[in-house]
Amino acid sequence: MAIQLQQVSYTYADRSLWRQTALHDINLNIAKGSMVGIAGATGSGKSTLLQLFNGILKPSQGTVKVLDVTIQAGEKAPRLLPLRRRVGLVFQFPEQQMFEETVEKDLIFGPLNFGMSPEEAKMRARQAMTDMGLDLALLERNPFRLSGGQMRKAAIASVLAMDPEIIVLDEPTATLDPLSRAELIGLLERLCREQGRTIVIVTHRMDELLPYADQWALLKEGRMAFQGSGQELAADPDILESCGLSVPHSLRYWNAVARRFGLEGEKPCLTAESLAERIALLQAEGMRDRHE
Known about the structure:
- This protein is α/β, with parallel strands linked by helices.
- The protein folds into two domains: 3-229, Rossmann fold (3-Layer(aba) Sandwich), CATH 3.40.50; 248-292, no CATH class.
- It contains eleven helices and ten strands.
- Strands 6-7-8-3-9-10 form a six-stranded mixed sheet, sandwiched between helices.
- A hairpin with a 2-residue loop joins strand 9 and strand 10.
- The radius of gyration is 21 Å and the shape is globular.
């Protein structure tokens, strides 16, 4: 497993009058090389959960195991700097991560801090730019003069340059236009499928990730409300509304088609293209049956 949480709770300001428990008794297993979506209403504990994955936060109760590092509540944490190289965290707003004069300086900052040579750091930076579909000419640009989509990709590239095994992203498509959102999700899927990286994405736009995520975890008021595959989630869409989430349009369309043609139990078509192909096939079969 890439990430395992066993009976994990987290409480802010644990010893003060303002204590607030953000997570309650969370059990979660994330397989290596998988693409995982995490969703929940505002205040459900999503961002708190992400910060447990690379040791920014430590559990108030329970055990967090990430790769070969175990963090046990109440015990002295192991050295976490190596873990933070292996688990890259991308914040929701890229300007929170970009701070140097040029994109290249931003991208080599992490690798240099983790002991890479300047030559290797620059090589990693260029490879990360290529992996994110960015023109290498942008390396000399000021990151704050990039477009929103370019800046988001550059922020991810700054994490990718450290060659992490796990990449955790908080609302990576926020503020992007539909075309840029689809392109970014496609790039992240390739990092998962072609490079074997574990990709964990917090999102409120489930439509764009639902066809690609191997696993989903839904949070409700700091508790795990659902954990399973997209197909299992599609079979029980009511759980989404109970968590304060809208049922994705793709899932609504599929359920309507499934009811119309008696396809309940069939693997859902969750992209517009696959759904259109399935409907066209059903129509062709109907036409053939009428002629016979």
